[in-house]
Amino acid sequence: MKLEPEKRKKILDAAYQEFTQHGYEYASTNRIVKKANIAKGMLFYYFNSKKELFHYLISSGIDYMLNEYFNKIDERETDFIEKYRQMARIKMESYIENPHIFHFLGTVYVNELDKLPDELKKRLFDVRNLAYAKTFDNIDKSLFREDMDPDDVIKLIYLTLLGYEKQLVERLKNQDMANMDYTSYWEEYDKFLDLLKKVYYK
After folding, report:
1. End-to-end CA distance of the chain, in Å?
2. Which residues on adjacent β-strands are paired with residue 106?
3. How big is the chain by its Cα radius of gyration, in Å?
4. What is this structure's pTM?
5. pLDDT under 70 in the chain at which residues?
6. Which residues pair with 144 in a beta bridge?
7. Can you list the domains of the chain with their CATH numbers?
8. Which residues have a Cβ under 8 Å from the Cβ of 4 and sit 6 or more positions away?
9. Is the four-CA dihedral 57, 59, 51, 173 of positive or negative sign?
């Protein structure tokens, strides 16, 4: 897609939002071009059909997740909570830059997966497996309390953090995330992680 970066991002953001809000079947290219403020002919100059655009968004979104999130994670970290602390910051930076991609891929995974070509299905499954590996591989279980099963500790910490992050997302809804000062949020998050260490670590 050979466009200047600003115009390209405007078109893709409009498309990501449209498919996220309405799903593939009810997404409208008319709404996309209106939101992106471009002629419809320009959209179909780059994409032959709505389906081709949809598949491009999935592939482009996966590339973004790999390059701007997963590939930045330091896999040498063996402390589970410290790894999660690092991953949360990288993920938040990526999310602030392109929140529509995260929302879109989540919607695709839940609602559209069965309708996708095998190649895109495989890429989505590969990303899911990579996320799992990045989170749970190479963990030093000797750091955990000895009176609890280490796999149970990992599961409890993980589920607790998922719940915390879900609550945080709700608190941040409808705010201008690109221009926010996140200092207080990170201080709160770091304090929460340190508290989990006191509970589950030696």
Report:
1. 53
2. none
3. 20
4. 0.83
5. 1-4, 174-178
6. 201
7. 50-200 (1.10.357)
8. none
9. negative
Those residues whose C-beta lies under 8 Å from the C-beta of residue 49, and which sit 6 or more positions away, are: none
- CA-CA-CA-CA torsion sign (71, 164, 105, 34): negative
Per the listing, tokens 């929140």 go with 99
**Long-range CB contacts (within 8 A, 24+) of 147-156:** 148/200, 153/200, 154/80, 156/200
Are residues 83 and 144 in contact, defined by beta-carbon separation less than 8 angstroms?
no
Longest pairwise C-alpha distance within the chain: 65
Encode pLDDT of 68-85 as tens digits: 999 999 889 999 999 999
> Six-digit token pair at 16?
């990501």
- Give the residue among 29, 51, 36, 35 at the shortest CA–CA distance from 3: 36
